[in-house]
Each structure stands twice: as C-alpha cells, then as structure tokens.
Amino acid sequence: MATLTFKRLGQIVAIAVLCLSLVSCVLMIRRPPRAVVELAIAQKLAQTQAVLYRQFEPSVDPADLSQVGRIRIADHHWTTLANQPAVEVAGTYHLKGGQLTAAQRRQTRDFDLYLRRGDSKDQWLLLEPVLARSGEVLRWQSTPLNEPEADSPA
C-alpha cells in the first residue's frame, strides 16, 4: 500500500513538473524579446526623424539624433492581422541623446506596436497600417527588424 502511494505521488509530481515546463515555454514564446521591442521603437523613431530632418535641416549628423531609452512594457496580447498572428505591444519610453532639452528627456512617450514573427526563429517584423483610400480594406506593411544582439525576454 505504501509503495502504491509513493508511486502515485511520483506520478503526480512528474505531471506537475511537465505542466509547469509547458506553461513556461508558452509564456516565453508569447512575448517578443525586449531587444526586439526597443529595435522596433528605434526604427519608427529613426523613420520619423529622417523625414523631419530632411524637411528642416538637411545636413544633420546622425550622431545628433535621439535614441530610445527606459522602455516600460505595460501590455502585450496576440491578435490576428491580415490573417496572420501578430502581437500588440504597448507601453512607454523616454528619449536620450541628440539635442534634447532636459524637459524633453523627462517626457514619457507612449508606444503601441504590432509585431509578427518572421521566417527564421530570431526574425521579427514590424507591422504598420498602410493608408487606404475610402472603401479599401486596411492593409498592413511588414518591415523586417534587424536581429537583436542580445535575446533578453521582455
């Protein structure tokens, strides 16, 4: 009888460990790495800065451009865009560097990104809506992000 109880207890422990392992794997897969989110924000910021600087100051040194810092991810959830799985990531960030004033560096900026896994394991795509004419279905443009140097979970 005691052998049966230990055998049953061993089975329960093994099942619990297996379930916890599966849950942790799912949680790790569900979130894009923090480095990917930072890269996506930086890419969007660089695009905006490039357009603005071309219009106002065509001879700006790239070292004078602002950079992303202090990212806080508030929420992420999976959805479907253009019949593809995508993760919406929302939160805040601050800017650093460039020719920012102290007040501009303290300012908290919101972000809301849509990301999708690419063809390879470490590749992520930034999804952005494409302006459509009235009556057209909303389209999404995907832009590959460079692979992050360090794969740290968000």
How would you summarize this macromolecular structure in one to three sentences?
The chain is an alpha+beta fold and 154 residues long.
Overall radius of gyration: 22 Å
Count every helix, treating DSSP H or I runs of 4 or more residues as helices. Answer: 3
Structural class category = alpha+beta
- Bin the strand percentage: 25-35%
Query: Which of globular, elongated, flat, extended, rod-shaped describes the shape?
Result: elongated
Order of helices and strands: HHEEHEEE
Please give the domain count: 2
First and last CA, distance: 48 Å
Helices and strands, with pairings:
Elements: H1 2-30, H2 34-56, E1 66-81, E2 84-97, H3 102-106, E3 109-117, E4 124-130, E5 139-144
Antiparallel strand pairs: 1-2, 2-3, 3-4, 4-5
Give structural notes.
The chain has 154 residues and is of the alpha+beta class. Helix content is 37%, strand content 34%. It is built from three helices and five strands. Strands 1-2-3-4-5 form a five-stranded antiparallel sheet. Strand 4 (124-130) and strand 5 form a beta hairpin. The chain is elongated, with a radius of gyration of 22 Å. The termini are far apart.
Note the main attributes of this structure.
154 residues; alpha+beta; 2 domains; 3 helices; 5 strands; 34% strand; elongated; disordered C terminus
